[in-house]
Design a protein that fits this description.
Helix content is 50%, strand content 9%. By secondary structure, the chain is an alpha+beta fold. A five-stranded mixed β-sheet has the order 1-2-8-5-3. Strands 4-12-9 form a three-stranded antiparallel β-sheet. The chain has a two-stranded antiparallel sheet with strand order 6-7. Keywords: Heme, Iron, Metal-binding, Monooxygenase, Oxidoreductase.
Length: 397
């Protein structure tokens, strides 16, 4: 009997999911695997099945539930520290999520768009002034989301580095439980002070509006507002940062697609959807544990069994995306699952789309000759984190 696949699997090519995903999808779309401690889990790789299970409330997102699957002891410890609706089931999930919904509507994001465009223009101005070569990760990939999340939370700009460091430490596969708990404590301690300041003197930001609307009425406690701030940092910073840098690399490695975007910046919206599908940078966020018996693909998933609904595999399903391993920014990829599906679908997806569309349209319009400054083989990838990306991206023009 062959050994079960052990998560996380190594990538043969840094820009593509492990080849085992495609093999399972074609031959065994509902399969068994192991995680770090030997626990058995289910792997779901077929688009149709992944989407169905993500919309099935017989699967729980609560990490403390018996059988909930984890990729490492450190990541598991970080998940247990979370006390936000991201790790809740209904009705609690919807109760808390609705308190933030108005902050991320299409209209709210459109109001932010001019300010974000100014930020992007300023960062690219700085890049052009400094001149090549430079590392795109700190210059744009980290800088823009840091500025946006600081704006949203009303936090001091000089706190960017601390917030980024502590948020990244929480989601590192190789971190020990003690290290992730320490990073979580540091981040919560920072937000504790920030929320206290805003309780005394509210401003024009998300935390202040939560305090005024829900904190002062007793609907949200001080601690709950602190944890909502931590969720916004993790969900709205690390992911967009990785997409900016990794998405830029994907376009640089596909010069025909880069040229198409330079020739027609209006393709930015389709380009972003395709990059989200193609890269799927949060490969293991959609893990659940069954709370009832569920039949899928000829298999029975029983209560207490952990499930990984592998969105990177689903987003490369040839039945839904012809030639799925080819980047095609003219493709209509809007039905991808990179933001999840069902009640836990990413709340901030419209903000992420707006930032990414503006970044790619502006970057390649203003610097159409942008290219890698090192061979692709020398690019270092961050494969030890819940969010996939690059550690550095040296570019020139």
């Amino acid at each position: 009997m062959s050994a079960l696949p052990r998560l996380p699997l190594d990538r043969e090519c840094p820009m593509h999911p492990p080849k085992t995903y495609a093999r399972l999808q074609a031959n065994e779309p509902v399969a068994r695997a192991e995680v770090y401690n030997g626990d058995k889990v289910w792997l779901i790789t077929k688009y149709e099945y992944v989407k169905a299970l993500l919309g099935d409330e017989r699967f729980s997102a609560v990490p403390s539930m018996p059988g909930y699957p984890q990729l490492s002891a450190g990541v598991g410890a970080a998940a247990l520290e979370e006390r936000t609706f991201l790790r809740m089931d209904n009705p609690d999930h919807d109760h808390y999520r609705k308190m933030l919904t108005r902050e991320f509507t299409v209209k709210a994001v459109q109001r932010l768009s001019p300010r974000v465009q100014q930020m992007i223009d300023g960062l690219i101005d700085d890049m052009l002034t400094k001149g090549p070569p430079l590392d795109l990760v700190p210059a744009l990939g980290l800088a823009l989301p840091s500025m946006v999340i600081t704006l949203l939370l009303g936090a001091p700009e000089e706190d960017h580095a601390f917030v980024q460091d502590r948020a990244s430490a929480r989601i590192n596969f190789n971190a020990t439980p003690e290290q992730t708990r320490a990073a979580t404590r540091d981040l919560l301690g920072y937000l504790e002070k920030l929320v206290t300041e805003k309780e005394n003197e509210p401003g024009d930001d998300i935390l202040s509006r939560l305090i005024v609307t829900y904190g002062r009425t007793g609907a949200l406690s001080h601690e709950e507002i602190v944890h909502m701030g931590r969720l916004l940092i993790s969900a709205g910073h690390e992911t967009t940062s990785s997409m900016i840098s990794l998405g830029t690399l994907a376009l640089l490695e596909n010069p025909g697609q880069q040229a198409a975007l330079v020739g027609d910046p209006s393709l930015a919206d389709r380009a972003v959807e395709e990059l989200l599908r193609y890269l799927t940078i949060i490969p293991f966020s959609t893990r659940r544990v069954a709370t009832a018996e569920v039949e899928i693909g000829g298999h029975t998933i029983r209560p207490g069994e952990g499930v990984f609904m592998l969105t990177p595999a689903a987003n490369r399903d040839p039945e839904h995306f012809p030639e799925p391993d080819r980047l095609d920014i003219t493709r209509d990829a809007r039905h991808h699952l990179a933001f999840g599906y069902g009640v836990h679908q990413c709340l901030g997806q419209q903000l992420a789309r707006m930032e990414l569309q503006a970044v790619f349209a502006t970057l390649f319009t203003r610097i159409p000759t942008l290219r890698l400054a090192v061979p692709m083989a020398e690019v270092s990838f961050r494969d030890d984190s819940v969010t996939y990306g690059v550690r550095a991206l040296p570019v020139t023009w």
